[in-house]
Amino acid sequence: MAESPDLSVIIPAHNEGPNLRELLPPLRALLDARGIRNEVFVVVREEDGATREAVSGVARVLRQEEPGYGGALRTGFRAAAGEFILTMDADLSHPPTFVADLWEKRLEAEVLIASRYVSGGGARMPAHRALLSRFLNRFFAKGLGVPLRDLSSGFRLYRRRALLLDEVTARDFDVLPEIVVRAYRHGWRVQEVPFFYEPRVHGSSNARIIPFGLAYLKTFGRLRGLRRADTERKVPTRPRG
Question: What's the rounded Cα separation, in Å, for the pair 93 and 180?
């Protein structure tokens, strides 16, 4: 019987063939060079020719089962067999070399976030996106009582047991803060790792600013209610260790 993978990599991708062609070979080389038993999934809404060609021989394509970015992650989470699960973007803004940094820290927390906004991190992006990103992250962190700077980063390494998929309801990019808040509710350790974000190389972003912001605000209301209920019930928030 084949051994289970140590690490499952999930990459949501929509018409990202040119970027995947540059991303997947060095990612696979890094994982293999470090002796990490791995599986790599590229989650798509529709499998175009460029994606099929880029993925051939280095990853497995999964057809997305639910709409939205959150739906793509959930499709990958269900298929993943690894004890650790990495999520990253297909657009080359998340370099494969940083996967090694997250992997080295894998035992320090159940959720590791590649963070643009902690000391040592940074981002190069249009001013309007930077402003919205910082506002939403500060708003969520303060309003939900979560001591993090970058809840919206999708470059993460999870311990499988900390992914509470039966509880998560968000289906778009707002799935990212929801996963973290629910991990906190159950006492899992969450840690940020300094990371410098560079914009995509090919194509345009699939995120739309106004729907993105509205989805986050709607999710904030739900999560705020959960945190208030925790306070009333005096749910412990100390990490499990």
Answer: 21
The domain of 72 spans 7-233
Do the domain assignments include residue 239? no
Pairing assessment for the beta strands 122-123 and 196-197 based on DSSP bridges: parallel
pLDDT in tens, 90-107: 999 999 999 999 999 999
1 lies in some domain: no
Residue 68 counted as domain residue: yes
Q: How far is the CA of 238 from the CAs of 161, 168, 182, 184, 186, in angstroms?
A: 17, 21, 13, 8, 9
CATH number reported for the structural domain that contains residue 81 in this entry: 3.90.550.10
Q: Is residue 2 part of a domain?
A: no
Structure tokens belonging to residue 76: 């990958």
Q: Is the pTM of this model over 0.85?
A: yes
Task: Report which of 93, 86, 72 is spatially closest to residue 160, judged by C-alpha positions.
Answer: 86
Query: Up-side HSE of residue 142: CA atoms within 13 Å toward CB?
Result: 6
